[in-house]
Amino acid sequence: MHILLVEDDDRLAAALTAALDRLGHQVVRAGRADDALRLKDGADFVLLDLGLPDMDGLEALRRLRRASAVPVIVLTARSEERDVLRGLRGGADDYLVKPFRTAELVARMDAVVRRGTRPLAGSGTVVAVGGVRIDLAARQLEVDGRPVALTRREFDVLALLAREPGVVRSREEILDAVWGDLLLSASRSLDVHIAGIRSKTGCPWLVETLRGTGYRLGTGGCS
User: Which domain holds residue 102?
Assistant: First the structure.
């Protein structure tokens, strides 16, 4: 994997680069946010420190997310729950507090990759319902033949529901599968993403809410 390591601490960057190199990864290191944003397109994975000299890492994360869906793990000394939630809400796939073991980082990277490439259930990779066509393998969405662009996490939520139409997914199950962190269960992050799916597709029925139970793929039709 091509990994972009965004870290201004020379000693930590050198140690991580050596460890990841030994595992067969190719690491490019950026010590500043502006360099990271310039190098993002060549990365398969981003490891992002928040304490950067030219820009707060959370702002760098927001800018990165506006341009790319590349997986991101935040690496930081900020351990308060509000910082963790801000990182996850800002688009990070996981959040690891320093100091950490390299083995744990690698395990978390593997988990993020698995969440993005898990086998698809059902007989095919295309789900069609009410004028909506969801291509799970290509990560493409069409409504009445018109392509609709979702964010990475919006598509992940929709894909989770579409893999097994009719199956109700609890709020906690979705947060665990897509965000990988149940700390978000009391937040409105999932609500915001579901609202985005409904708004962008023009199909409010597409994600059906079952109060007190969870969510499932709807069966209506867009008008």
Answer: 2-117
Residue 4's nearest CA partner among 23, 33, 22 is: 33
Distance CA(45)–CA(3), nearest Å, equals 5
pLDDT, tens only, 31-69: 999 999 999 888 999 999 999 999 988 899 888 887 777
Task: Specify whether 67 is located in the same domain as 131.
Answer: no
- Of 62, 87, 117, which residue constitutes the final position of a domain? 117
Count of structural domains, the chain: 2
Phi first, then psi: give them for residue 49, nearest 5 degrees: -80, 150
pLDDT at 83 (0 to 100): 78
Q: State both tokens at 217.
A: 């793929």
For the whole model, what pTM was predicted?
Answer: 0.56
**Cα 194 to Cα 185: distance, rounded to the nearest angstrom:** 14
Q: Are 198 and 204 in contact (CB under 8 A)?
A: yes
Q: How far apart are CA 198 and CA 108, in angstroms?
A: 31
In a shared domain, residues 173 and 192: yes
